[in-house]
Design goal:
The protein has helices at residues 7-23, 33-50, 54-58, 67-78, 84-114, 117-129, 131-139, 143-162, 166-180, 188-203, 208-218. It is mostly helical. α2 (33-50) crosses α4, α5 packs parallel to α8 (143-162) and α8 (143-162) runs antiparallel to α9.
Amino acid sequence: RSLRSHLPFFIFYFVLLVIGISIYKDYGISWDEPISRDNNGVLNYDFIRTGDYQPVITGNEKYHGPAFEILLVGIERLCGLKNLQDIYFMRHLVTFLAFALSVLFFYMLCVRYLKSKWLAALGAVFLVLSPRIFADAFYNSKDLVFMSFVIINLYTTLRFLESKNFITTLFHAIISAIVIDIRILGIVIPCFTLLFLFIEYIRSQNQRKRILIITPLYC
């Protein structure tokens, strides 16, 4: 019965996945996508494998987080992709799937705040129907992926502050780290997390011991 109440969103989400998987090959390559792959993903992936950091620190992408680019190159190498067209098709599909995952978390955030599954589903629809966002969801592995993981991180923040246990702490910490390593601006979420913990520490005496244990674990 609980799952049935989410049926409007599930229908929309299924349609989104079908459309995205059907059209991801229709998008071209953005002007900075080859730069992101070659000067960020490939160089950092090779650095992890070989330990040669010189190409990374002298490259023109050293100020951009490599987390998602490393994932893309890792999939590329794992699948043995050599043809550039196949490589960029894969990148566009994985980038879209990352966005699709964030739509699910956005819906869950909307459910919690709007208290209406219909309005929450409508919110998810509005997110997807933004032309700029939907187009970038296939080829923008920087800003759009950052936005997607920030959405996920906002949800993990909420769950962590509500239930400060090992699982929520670990999940929130991992997603926070990924967000920071996609765009350094992601550091604002850990900063706000620590601020909220500090405020709760002052206000709630019965939570102080748990906060003192969980804060270093999150950091």
